[in-house]
Amino acid sequence: MYNIMEEEEYEFEAADLPDDPCFCPQAEFNNKPDSLFFNDGVRRIDFVLVYEDEDKKEFEKRHTFLRRKRRREYFEASLMKMGMELEATRSVIDEKLMFVKIHMPWDVLCTYAEVLHIKLPIEPNDLSSRPSPWRFFSCITKHFYPSEDLITKETEFFTAPFEKNRLEYFYVKDRDQFFTQSMRSRMAYYILSRAPYEIRGKIKKFGITKLLDGGVYKAAYPLHDSRFNVRSKEEGCPSERLLLYEEWAHPKSFYKMQPLDLIRKYYGEKIGIYFAWLGFYTAMLAFAAIVGLGCFIYGFKTQDTSTWSKEVCHPEIGGAIVMCPQCDKDCTYWRLNSTCETSKKLCIFDNFGTLVFAVFMSIWVTLFLEFWKRYQAELEYEWDTVEFLEQEEQPRPEYEAKCIHERINPITRVKEKVPFTACGRCIRVSLGMGTVLFWLLLILASVVAIIVYRLAVFFSFSKKLRAQDLKELEPFKEYVTPQMATSVTASIISFVVIMILNILYERVAIWITDFELPRTKTEYENSLTLKMFLFQFVNYYSSCFYIAFAKGKVVGYPGQPVYLLGKYRNEECDPGGCLIELTTQLTVIMGGKAIWNNIQEVLMPWVKNLIFRYCTRVGSEKVIPRWEQDYQLQPIGKLGLFYEYLEMVIQFGFVTLFVASFPLAPVLALVNNLFEIRVDAWKITTQFRRIVPEKAQDIGAWQPILQGVAILAVATNAMIIAFTSDMIPRLVYYWSFSVYPYGDYSENTMEGYINSTLSIFNIEDFSNTSKPEKTPYWFNNITTCRYRDFRYPPGHPKEYEYSIYYWHVIAAKLAFIIVVEHIVYLTKFILSYIIPDVPDAVKEQIKREKYLTQVILHETNLKLVTKHLKPVTDKFLDSTNMNLSKEGLDLDF
C-alpha cells in the first residue's frame, strides 16, 4: 500500500522553512463589498492569492494536495519573512476557496522601489508647455476629449530614481498616495515572483508562476478599485475603473480621445503604450482611408467607361472572340464577353489611380513610423521610461531558478551563475530554429495543397459551367465564372487552414521560447515575437503572394501547357489578370480575421463570465467582497498584449503590402480599429481581472518588424502593379500604338487593346490529351481560339514563340520597378532624415530633469559631507585658535 508520509518525507526532506514561521492569519469578511483594505480598514490590499482548501474536500490523490499545502505554507511564510503582511478570508460563495490578501508596509515599499529604480517626483515641472496649435478650435475640440470634470489633469513633476536614504528630497505629500496602486502591485508581483516555496538540497524553487501552473494557487491578481459601473462607497477611493469605463470603454465615448495618462496610471506603462500606439495608428489610417476611398470611387465611376471593359463586354468585340479551354478535355471553348462583369469589377481596382495610391501609401507608411517615434519619445519622457531598459530590466524568475553553471562575466570579471553552458545554449537555439523551420515548411505544404485544390475544383467548375448540355446555367454565366467560384471557395478554405495552424503553432512557439530560456522578459517577448510573426507572415501572406506573383505566370500555351506534379495543368488567370482574385483573397482573410478576433475577444470572455456567475450564483442577501468579485472575472493570459499587437501588425501588413490591389484596405482597417480600441478597452475594464502593471519604454520588437514591413511594402506594391495588374501593358500599348500610330499623332485612345493582348492558337494543334471532348452549341466553322499571352500566331516563322512586344512589356515592367523603388526609397530616406526622432521640447525637458537631479543629489551629498565634517572642523579651528592665542596671534580677519 502506498505510504503518503513516505512521499512527503522524500519530497520535503531538504526543505528549510523560515525560522518561526507564522502562517497566514485568518479573518472574517466585514461585509464591506467595496473595501480595498484588510479588516482593520488601514492596511491596503496590494495583491490577492486564491487557493482551494484541501481540508474541505476529499481527494483521490491526497498526497498531491498535501504537497501543495506544504509548498503554500512555505511560500506564505517566505512572504512574511520578506516583510509582507498577509490576511486570509474564506469565500462567501464557495467555502472551499480561500483568499489571501497581501499588504506591503511602507518600509518594504521603499526598499523595493529602490531595487526596481522606480522614478518618483522630486519637484514640480517649471518648464512652460508650448501652446497647442489646435487651441483656437478648443470650443470644438473639447467635445472630443474626456470630461475634465471627471478626469482632472495631474500636476507634472520632475522625477528621479527613488533612494530610501534620501526620502526627504522627494515630493512626499501623503505616504498613502506617494506610491500609486500600480507601483504597489508591480512591487508586490516582483516579490511574489522571487519568493521561494521549496528548497531541496542546492536546488531552490521559487515564483508564483510555478505555483499557479502546479495548482497550488488558483489565481493571483491585483484588485480593481471599484465596480466598473458603480462608484465605490469607500471613503477616499478614486474609482478610476469607473472613470475609465465611462470616458473610454463605454460605447457612447467612441468618438472621444483616449485618457492615456489615466490608462497608464491604472494599468501601467505597457498597457498605456499599446493603446497610445493603436490610437496613433488609427488616426494615421484616416488619411490613408480618405485617399483609398477616393481611388475606389474613381475606379467605380470609370468602370463602365473604361475602354478595355467596354471591348470585353461589346457583343461584336468580346462576343466575337473565342477563348481557348483553360484545362484539358473537360473544359471547352468560351466567349470573352462571358467575363464582362469580372472585367468591370477589375477596372474598379486596376486603374491609374491605383498607381498613385500605391506611391502615396509608401510615403504614408514612412510618415507614420517617423511621427510615431516622435510621439513615443514624448510618452517616454512623460511616463518616466527614458532610461528604463538600462536601469530596471531584471532576470526572469524562470531563468534564475535554473542557474546552476558558473562563468566569468566578460564585463565585471566576476563569477556569475547561468542556466547552461555556451554549448548547451547553442543546442537549444538550434533545436528551436529547426522546429520553426519545420512548421514553416508545413505552411508551405498547406499552400501547395490549396493550389492543388484550386486546380481540381477549377476543372470541376469549368466542366459544369461550360458544359453544352447545362443550358439552364446560361443566364448565370455572366456572374458565376470558374475563376470566381474557385477563388472564393479556396479563400475560405485557406482562411480556415490559417486559423487551425495558428492555434497549433502558438503552443509550439511558446514551448520553443520556454526551452530557449531567455534571461529577461524583454528578451523572452522579443524571441517569441519574432517566431510568431515569422510564422504568421508565411501563414497569412503566402496565399496572397502565390496569387500575386506565381499564378498564371508559368502556364505555357494551349498546345504545350505546363503541368503541376505531372498531373494538374497550371492555373491561369482571368483574361483581365489575377488582380481581382487577389482582391477577393484579401477581402476574405481580412474580413474573416476581424470577425473571428472580435468573437474571441468579446463574445468568449462575456459568455465565460456569464456561465461562471450562473454556476456560482448566490442569494441576494449575501454581500460579495471586492476580491471575490474580481475572481469571477477572466484571467489575463501569460502573454498579455502579445496577441493584440500581433493582430494589428498582421493587419498593418495587409494594409501596406498589398494595397495596390485593394485600395479599400485602409478603410476596412480604420473601421475595424475604431471598434478595436473600444472593444479592447471594454474587455480589460469589465471582463478581465486587473492586469499586473508593467513598465515599457516602447512597443518592443514590433518596431523593427513594422519598419521591415514598410520596406518590403515598396517592393511588393511595385511588383503587383508591374506583374499582377495590367497597368504596364496598357501603358506600353498606349505609348506604342495609340499616341503615335504610324508615326503620326492621333487622338489618345485605348481602342484595340484587348485584341492586342490575346494571342492566336490553331485548334488543329491541340494534342490528344488536351483537346476538349465537347464543343459549345455555337461553335461552328471556327478554326482558331485566343489565349492571354504575347506570342507569334500560327504560320509565322517563329510561331508560338514570344513576340517582340512581349520583351518590350517585360523591359517596361522591370524599368518601372527600378524607377519607382528608387524614387520611393529616396523619398523615405529624406523624410527619415529631416524628421527628428525626439522633439526639441522633449530634449529640453530631459536635460532640465537631469540637471535638477544632479543638483539635488550633489547638494544632498554636500550636506551629508558637511554634516559629518563640521564637528571635526570646529574642533580643529578651536584648537588652532587656542594655540595661536597663546602665541599672541589672531585668526579673525
Q: Can you tell me about this structure?
A:
This protein is α+β, with helices and mostly antiparallel strands. Among the domains are: 4-118 and 162-223, no CATH class; 257-391 and 430-729, no CATH class. 54% of the residues lie in helices and 8% in strands. It is elongated and about 120 Å long. The N and C termini lie far apart (98 Å). The model is unreliable at 1-16, 466-479, 739-748 and 889-893 (pLDDT under 50).
Strand order of the largest sheet: 2-3-1-8
E-strand count: 18
The shape is elongated
Annotation field: number of helices: 27
Mean pLDDT: 79
Q: Strand share of the residues? A: 5-15%
pLDDT < 50 stretches: 1-16, 466-479, 739-748, 889-893
Work out the radius of gyration: 35 Å
- Proportion of residues in helical segments: 40-55%
How far apart, in Å, are the first and last alpha carbons?
Answer: 98 Å
Overall structural class, as computed from helix and strand content, comes to alpha+beta
Assembly type of the chains comes to: single chain
Biggest sheet descriptor: 4 strands, antiparallel
